[in-house]
Structure formats: C-alpha cells, structure tokens
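Before drawing any conclusions, I looked closely at one protein's amino acid sequence and its backbone structure tokens, quoted below without any editing.
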Amino acid sequence: LQLVESGGDLVQPGGSLRLSCAASGLSLGDYSVGWVRQAPGKEREKVACFSGFDGVTYYSNSVRGRFTISTDNSKNTAYLQMNALTSEDTAEYFCAADLGSCFSDFRGWKVWGQGTQVTVSS
C-alpha cells in the first residue's frame, strides 16, 4: 500500500496549487482519503477528506471555500486544489487513506504518503 504526493511548490500569496496523491496497492474508491498538513511548530491538521464509499466530504474551517478535494478513480489519484493561498497555508502536506470514516481520528489512519512541501511567500 503506497501513496505518493506531488505538486508542492513555492507560490505567492493569493496564488493556487494543485497537489496530487497517486495510490498503488489500494483502490481509493474503497477508502476515505484525506489531506493532512503540518506547519513548523504546529500539530498536524486534517484539512480535507473524501470518502469514496459514501461520498462524504470534509473541510476544515481554515480551508473551506478555498480548497477542493477530488478523486479520479480511473487514475487512482486524489487531488487537492488550493486557491487564495496565504502564508498560513505554508506546511508539509500529507495524503492519507483509511477504511474508516473521514470523521475518524486521522492519527490512526493506516496509509500515509511521504509529504510534499507547500510554501506561500512573496
């Protein structure tokens, strides 16, 4: 079971990025897949999640309205479209998947990627 993130970059405030999470060894359609970020000196924060088996979507208050999570089952890949980025969005972004609900404690999720760095700075 493997998740590989890509798409992290340096972007100016107000800009956009799209992160990708390619899965192998598991079918994302059967899992909840989420994006978790960790900024320096802060705890990990679940920012978005989509459950392929029941269609539930979750966004944290900090990103709702700016970020969009999606999946392409034909490519077995999840995405996180991030718009209107601010310096507060600077963090390492991790893709994670689990057979449980999006509302379960993400710290117990079974499959994690290695992370991709997003830096928002002028």
